């Protein structure tokens, strides 16, 4: 690639966040290059993507091929799994109560990234290699890859994950922290119907969540202390199925045909500013959130759609899309949405970890009691979850489910 060929946007990283950012920028009329090795084909996770994110997949013209492999989520049930005497009531959020057919869909990560990869290959310049050097100049950024080949762009999207080198090159600091927890994921068959409901069992060590999949299958995100997670990972399938059945208290009946398990240590991270020196941060380069309440990739979709809108409008006006003014628009547009999600999930997780403290448990219980009793409150929470007021980019609007 000739060094003088200047792109509007260079996305570094081809994980789900980088691919969705590249695809969104390309359909917004921006000349885009996406640089990064292909995504992990052995990722066994699924992503619960809410209405706005699914709308983006429709606008990228990949929803038809993904829908057949995905399951609508029509309800979210929160069950207090603490051993306290004062247990909170069960809360059931039903999408139809808020006027939607579904909150969103549970989509396997591998077909999702394959579909996004196909869009990027068709609509962007796709380089399946790692970037080895980033030089930020006054008017553009030059990226080096392979045998000293270079590519130049006005604006770089750092979507190179939680240890982002592009973020460091731009001088963007992060706050990082860890949780004494790991999440075990797997897909399993079960005897009873899930009825499209995702169930979160809130236990003192963290939530155990089962998200509906096609037919009588569900996807597990089981959060435990790291030592216990290690023990559960080492069990043979039938012993694990038995323990999972017990943890779920018979909710889905007997459990069988488990896929291999994977574990993810939990941590959190938040970029102190979201754009600086011709670089914007997106996906886990900007925010790392525990897998509770399905927030991470939904936030990344909003990063992508917002960036595409701001950069697309700047280009149409003939502005420099990497200017400080354009960067500051992205930072302002994204910081409230990202900040509130990081805060809310951290608070929820820490309130579970501290639920042995009576005051904390009482406050959590009262919150769940209020949600269980008030349809208006539940509807507000549901609408905010599907498309937050703080972030409504055009690529995610319209055609509500
Ligand atoms: C157990 C679990 C369950 C989850 N469930 C959900 C869910 O239901 N819903 C939801 O919304 N979110 C969910 N998430 C969050 C979601 O998976 C993440 O937000 C998402 O995967 C982050 O993607 P990313 O592209 O930012 O990062 P990554 O997937 O880490 O991708 C970063 C990419 O950058 C590349 N890279 C790094 N350095 C370079 C370089 N120098 N040059 C080029 N490329 C580079 C890497 O190769 C990698 O491909 C879950 C997370 C976990 C752990």
Overview of this protein structure:
With 401 residues, the protein is an alpha+beta fold. It has a domain of 225 residues: FAD/NAD(P)-binding domain (3-Layer(bba) Sandwich). Helices cover 36% and strands 29% of the residues. The protein contains 11 helices and 20 strands. Strands 5, 6, 12, 13, 14, 15, 16, 17 and 20 form a 9-stranded mixed beta sheet that branches. Helix 1 packs parallel to helix 4, helix 1 runs parallel beside helix 8 and helix 8 runs antiparallel to helix 9. The longest helix is centred in the C-terminal third of the chain and has 30 residues. The two termini are 43 Å apart. The mean pLDDT is 90. Bound molecules: flavin-adenine dinucleotide. Flavin-adenine dinucleotide binds next to helix 1, strand 3, strand 12 and helix 8.
CATH fourth-tier homologous superfamily of the domain at 6-71 and 107-176 and 267-355: FAD/NAD(P)-binding domain
Number of strands: 20
Instruction: Name the shape in a single word.
Output: globular
Helical coverage, percent range = 25-40%
Assembly type of the chains comes to single chain
Average pLDDT, all residues: 90
Which segments are poorly predicted (pLDDT under 50) over 5 or more consecutive residues? Answer: none
Quickly give the CATH architecture of the domain at 6-71 and 107-176 and 267-355: 3-Layer(bba) Sandwich
Which structural category do the helix and sheet elements fall into?
A: alpha+beta
In percent terms, what proportion of residues is strand? 25-35%
Alpha-carbon Rg, integer:
21 Å
Major sheet attributes: 9 strands, mixed
């Amino acid at each position: 690639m000739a060094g003088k060929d200047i792109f509007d946007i260079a996305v570094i990283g081809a994980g789900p966040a980088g691919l969705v950012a590249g695809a969104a920028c390309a359909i917004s009329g921006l000349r885009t290059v996406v640089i990064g090795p292909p995504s992990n084909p052995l990722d066994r996770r699924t992503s619960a993507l809410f209405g706005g994110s699914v709308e983006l997949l429709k606008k990228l013209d990949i929803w038809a091929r993904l829908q057949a492999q995905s399951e609508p989520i029509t309800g979210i049930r929160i069950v207090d799994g603490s051993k306290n005497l004062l247990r909170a009531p069960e809360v059931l959020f039903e999408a139809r109560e808020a006027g939607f057919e579904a909150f969103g869909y549970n989509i396997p990560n591998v077909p999702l990234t394959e579909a996004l990869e196909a869009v990027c290959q068709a609509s962007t310049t796709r380089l399946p290699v790692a970037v080895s050097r980033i030089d930020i100049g006054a008017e553009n950024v030059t990226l080096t890859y392979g045998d000293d080949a270079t590519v130049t762009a006005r604006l770089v999207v750092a979507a190179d994950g939680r240890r982002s080198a592009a973020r460091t090159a731009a001088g963007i600091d992060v706050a990082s922290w860890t949780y004494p927890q790991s999440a075990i994921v797997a897909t399993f068959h079960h005897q009873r119907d899930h009825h499209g409901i995702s169930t979160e069992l809130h236990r003192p060590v963290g939530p155990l969540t089962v998200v509906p999949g096609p037919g009588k299958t569900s996807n597990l995100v089981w959060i435990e202390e790291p030592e216990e997670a290690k023990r559960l990972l080492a069990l043979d399938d039938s012993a694990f199925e038995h323990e999972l059945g017990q943890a779920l208290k018979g909710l889905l009946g007997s459990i069988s045909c488990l896929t291999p398990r994977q574990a993810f240590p939990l941590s959190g991270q938040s970029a102190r500013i979201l754009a600086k020196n011709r670089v914007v941060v997106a996906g886990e380069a900007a925010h790392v959130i525990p897998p509770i309440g399905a927030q991470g990739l939904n936030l990344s979709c909003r990063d992508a759609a917002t960036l595409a809108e701001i950069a697309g409008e700047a280009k149409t006006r003939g502005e420099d899309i990497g200017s400080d003014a354009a960067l500051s628009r992205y930072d302002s547009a994204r910081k409230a949405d990202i900040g509130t999600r990081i805060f809310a999930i951290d608070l929820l997780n820490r309130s579970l970890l501290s639920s042995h403290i009576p005051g904390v448990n009482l406050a959590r219980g009262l919150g769940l009691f209020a949600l269980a009793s008030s349809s208006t409150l539940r509807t507000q929470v549901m609408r905010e979850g599907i498309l937050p007021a703080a972030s409504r980019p055009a690529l995610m609007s319209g055609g509500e489910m």
